[in-house]
Structure formats: C-alpha cells, structure tokens
C-alpha cells in the first residue's frame, strides 16, 4: 500500500511486478546517463571559447549521434517487449476468480467452488475500526492463496470499470458484455489494496479492492467455511 513520502514504487507482491520494478530502474539509469551527457555537452558549448568559422560538416560525428540513440532505444525496447509478452501470458491456473464491477462496488465469484459469491463494499468512515484504512478497506475481502497461479476473469454490469492493484502489476478493464482475463501469482502473504482506475461515475473513488493473500491450507479452510454458509 502506498504511504506518505513514498517516492518509489510499492513493494512488489508478484514476480511480474518485480520484473517491472527492475525495468523501471533500468530505464531510469539510461535516462540519467543521457541527461548527464547532454547536460555536459550543452554546458561545454556555453562556456568554452573555441570556434571554427570554416566548419561546414562532420560526417563522422553525425553517424555517431545517429547510431547511438538507435542502440539506446534497442536497450530499452528489448526488455520492454519481453515484459509485455510475459504480462499477457496465461498459465495453467490453480484458482479462478470472477470479479464483476458495479456502480459502485465489486462482486466476486469463485467459479471453481460451489456457492461462493459475495459483494464487496467500501466500509463507511463512520463504521471504521482503528485497524481499517479510510477509503481503502472493504467489508468482504477477496481471499486468494499465495504461491498459486491465479486467473482473474472480469466484467462489468453497468459501465466501464478498471480492476487495479499496483503491488500485483494488475490493471484490467471491466467492460459490460465482455469477459477479460489476466493471470498473476502472489508470492507472499498480506493485504493488497487497489482501486477502480476508470472514471465510472459519481462514486468512482469509493469502490476499493482488497486482496487477502493467505497460505493454501488456510485458503482451503476458508473455502470450506464459505461453502457451508
């Protein structure tokens, strides 16, 4: 979860988010090198007193400053394309969960198990406990096992929504009449908060998402308990 004075990305909770963080650092390092080089060249042009009145062309330097940016773009493009394909890859899921966006709450259905479906509403400020987070906590959290491949299927019942959790590198649109899917893996326990990132109406800011990541044995107990109710 993002906190005050946080300048970097959130701590990753999935392998894909780790790779995205590495790519972010890799790209910023290249940008820093370009910024330092261009800044040095500009400052040297401003402050040196050298001039050459007969200089008309410099084919060597022109070839160099054409090839170097192309090579730099290749160093950025190759890992970026690799990540794009990894993000779209659907592996064999152990658990499937369906999420339906409404104005303004989420519904969850565990399609692998019988009779497990519930709505998830934001907890009003007047009903918050000391351990709850304002505008982020919900009454019914979506529970998932860690170290298990998860398939999320998502749609909407009314307008466009977007199911987004930064720590998991998950952002997928919920479109009425269309079923989208995405695959991810949780690599640790914890609570992971997200929000709808598609402007979907007056209460768009008040339909948070909370994923509770627990161990597979506890997840089986939770499923057994929910099936009985």
TrEMBL record:
Cytochrome oxidase subunit II transmembrane region profile domain span: 1-91
GO CC, one annotated term: mitochondrial inner membrane
UniProt keyword annotations, A-Z: Copper, Electron transport, Magnesium, Membrane, Metal-binding, Mitochondrion, Mitochondrion inner membrane, Respiratory chain, Translocase, Transmembrane, Transmembrane helix, Transport
GO molecular function, one term: cytochrome-c oxidase activity
Localisation: Mitochondrion inner membrane
Domain Cytochrome oxidase subunit II copper A binding: 92-225
Membrane topology of the entry: Multi-pass membrane protein
Catalytic activity annotation: 4 Fe(II)-[cytochrome c] + O2 + 8 H(+)(in) = 4 Fe(III)-[cytochrome c] + 2 H2O + 4 H(+)(out)
Cofactor(s) in the UniProt record: Cu cation
PROSITE patterns for this protein: COX2, COX2_CUA, COX2_TM
Annotated transmembrane regions: 27-47, 67-87
InterPro entries noted in UniProt: CcO_II (IPR045187), CcO_II-like_C (IPR002429), CcO_II_C (IPR034210), Copper_CuA (IPR001505), Cupredoxin (IPR008972), Cyt_c_oxidase_su2_TM_dom (IPR011759), Cyt_c_oxidase_su2_TM_sf (IPR036257)
Example GO BP: ATP synthesis coupled electron transport
Similarity remark: Belongs to the cytochrome c oxidase subunit 2 family.
Subunit composition and interactions: Component of the cytochrome c oxidase (complex IV, CIV), a multisubunit enzyme composed of a catalytic core of 3 subunits and several supernumerary subunits. The complex exists as a monomer or a dimer and forms supercomplexes (SCs) in the inner mitochondrial membrane with ubiquinol-cytochrome c oxidoreductase (cytochrome b-c1 complex, complex III, CIII).
Known role: Component of the cytochrome c oxidase, the last enzyme in the mitochondrial electron transport chain which drives oxidative phosphorylation. The respiratory chain contains 3 multisubunit complexes succinate dehydrogenase (complex II, CII), ubiquinol-cytochrome c oxidoreductase (cytochrome b-c1 complex, complex III, CIII) and cytochrome c oxidase (complex IV, CIV), that cooperate to transfer electrons derived from NADH and succinate to molecular oxygen, creating an electrochemical gradient over the inner membrane that drives transmembrane transport and the ATP synthase.
PANTHER family cross-referenced by the UniProt entry: CYTOCHROME C OXIDASE SUBUNIT 2 (PTHR22888:SF9), CYTOCHROME C OXIDASE, SUBUNIT II (PTHR22888)
Protein name: Cytochrome c oxidase subunit 2
Source organism of this protein record: Dorcus tanakai
